[in-house]
Write a structure and sequence with these properties.
Helix 7 crosses helix 8. The longest helix is centred in the N-terminal third of the chain and has 18 residues. With 364 residues, this protein is α/β, with parallel strands linked by helices. It has 13 helices and twelve strands.
Length: 364
């Protein structure tokens, strides 16, 4: 997911839809590993235009990972194919307009990571009227007319975060105490599933949730964290954060308050958070393979444009899906995850400020 500032508020109907939304692990079981087959295995037979709609630029993954990986995969599959790209900048109405523009330009398939999963159903409706299939990318769109879902197991993400936090607290001898939860926006179905996975583990281990907020907006999360530090003080034994943006917001709030840092979780394995983990600030993050997700989306998009029906490995709300399995990232396995997969180079991670920590942890 900064899985990182997100959606506008929606009404009771949206909340009801979200509550009934997918639990990614509750659908048919995904394969044990993401589809790592080469994009070149599904060559296109003619040129198409594919639309890619991403939700925001505050999540660094979208511009630095998802977009370039998707465009490269499409180009490998179909040298003459074109990708039309647009970013919603955290605006559901803007994303709607971008989709309409792409449909007008004749895209054969739309790949949409929605800013608002409920509002984006109108995009699916418009595309269906023009016989254009829509792939929900990373986050679910609340529509039964989706062609495919390409995503990650986000309930598992929450479970990994919650378990890492519980294990750390137990290791530190903290058997009880309070956790402040910085959850993602309630209009993001992924955030709903992440929260469920984390809450089940944290509360199941006997830790009390002191308070919570639902937002992907970093400044809002930081303001909330600061207010909770003032309210609860040393009752706070950990900050559960649904993503790296909120994690860094919590760390900034703790530093500003002169509070000793407590374990803080995250998601997206951003470079800033990987370095924060090395510095002993953020405790962990969760890594989903951006390349694997983008390549799978490109492959399915080209197959759909060719009139083919890809064989899905999972199902989400009755919609065929491909779901990747996430990995927890701590200081112990940075080299074996994001560096091994080429998300970052050693030089990018191990700048002069972090060189000593890298050497101490075998990152060379």
């Amino acid at each position: 997911m900064k899985i990182t500032a997100r959606h506008s508020a929606v009404g009771l109907m949206a909340a009801t839809l979200l509550a009934a939304g997918l639990a990614l692990t509750g659908c048919s079981a995904p394969s044990d590993a993401p589809d790592t087959s080469s994009p070149g295995e599904a060559p296109a037979q003619e040129a198409f235009t594919i639309g890619l709609l991403l939700p925001d630029e505050t999540s660094t993954r979208y511009e630095t990972q998802d977009r370039p990986q998707f465009e490269a995969a499409v180009k490998e599959l179909c040298a003459e194919c074109e990708v039309l790209y647009a970013n919603a900048d955290q605006d559901a109405a803007k994303q709607q307009q971008q989709a309409q523009s792409m449909l007008t330009q004749g895209v054969k398939v739309l790949v949409v990571d929605p800013w608002d999963g409920v509002a984006a159903a109108s995009i699916v409706n418009q595309a269906k009227a023009q016989d254009v299939p829509v792939i929900a990318y990373d986050r679910l769109i609340q529509s039964p007319d989706l062609a495919y879902v390409i995503s990650n197991d986000y309930t598992k993400v929450g479970e990994l975060q919650g378990q890492a936090l519980v294990d750390k607290l137990k290791k530190d001898g903290v058997d009880s105490g309070g956790v402040v939860m910085l959850n993602g926006a309630s209009t993001d179905n992924n955030a709903v599933n992440i929260r469920k996975g984390a809450s089940d583990v944290i509360e199941g281990a006997g830790y009390q949730v002191l308070s919570h907020i639902e937002t992907w907006d970093g400044p809002t999360a930081q303001q909330f964290a600061a207010s909770q530090i003032s309210k609860f003080g040393d009752q706070i034994k950990a900050f559960y954060s649904a993503n790296d943006g909120n994690a860094q917001a919590a760390i900034s709030a703790m530093n500003a308050a002169g509070m000793a840092l407590v374990p803080t979780t995250g998601l997206d394995a951003t470079l800033a958070s990987i370095q924060s983990i090395l510095a002993g600030q953020q405790y962990m993050s969760v890594y989903n393979s951006f390349a694997g997700e983008a390549q799978q989306a490109a492959k399915v998009a080209i197959q759909l444009a060719n009139g083919e029906k890809p064989d899905a490995t999972a199902e989400v709300n009755g919609i065929p899906a491909f779901l990747q399995q996430p990995q927890a990232v701590t200081i112990d396995n940075i080299a074996d995850t994001v560096i091994k997969d080429g998300v970052y180079t050693v030089d990018e991670v191990c700048t002069s400020q972090y060189a000593e920590a890298c050497a101490a942890n075998g990152i060379q």
